[in-house]
Amino acid sequence: MNADRPAWEQLSALRVVSPIQPRKLAKVPFVEMAEGRLQGVVSSGSDIERVYVSSITAGTHGYNCSTNNNRPCGGLRGAPCKHLHSLVDEAVLQYGLDQVARYLRVDGERAGDLVRNLDGGHESIPAAVVFSRFLRHLAYLELPATTEPVAEMQWFPSLGAVS
Predict the structure, then answer these.
(1) Which 3 state secondary structure label does DSSP give 26?
(2) Is there a contact between 127 and 67 (Cβ–Cβ < 8 Å)?
(3) SS3 breakdown of the chain: % helix, strand, coil, rounded to 5?
């Protein structure tokens, strides 16, 4: 391995970081901080077959919530809906309050403070990208357990590769 680079940068896989606290996967099965947003999939409280794609943009605090086929959430009436509150609550369980607050660039001592301190408004963000990432994660759960490389991930450099 190259002594100029940390060992983790030379590996084809990174260690999976465990959640800070246990999460309620039935309510928020997917949450991530990616593409400059806190985003995820939140189950509907009234219809077991409906999910919402919710997101908050870091810095500007623009937020959006819609069904996976881009129908707007009925709870967005000038303020973040309950799905956005659930998304932030679960992100705090997954990543920790400090990391979520730092990523969104908002102050707060509790998860609820983060949502209350957002100073942005509703912005239209297509749900398809986040929802397809969620479906991709679900597909990996269906793969049989193996220590062999996964074919679609072969673009990662192999262990021991010299730059």
Answers:
(1) coil
(2) yes
(3) 30, 15, 55
pTM: 0.76
Pairwise CA distance, residues 60 & 37, whole Å:
10
Cβ neighbours of 88 (radius 10 Å): 30
List, in order, residues 6 or more apart from 23 with CB less than 8 Å away. Answer: 31, 90, 93, 94
Q: Which residue, 137, 134, 136, is CA-closest to 52? A: 134
Which residues does 140 contact at the CB level (< 8 Å), separation at least 6? 150
**What is the tens place of the pLDDT at every residue in 102-127?**
999 999 888 888 999 998 899 888 78
Tokens of 26: 């039935």
Helices 97-104 + 82-95 axis angle, to 10 = 120
The string of pLDDT tens digits covering residues 28-57 is: 999 999 999 999 999 987 888 889 999 999
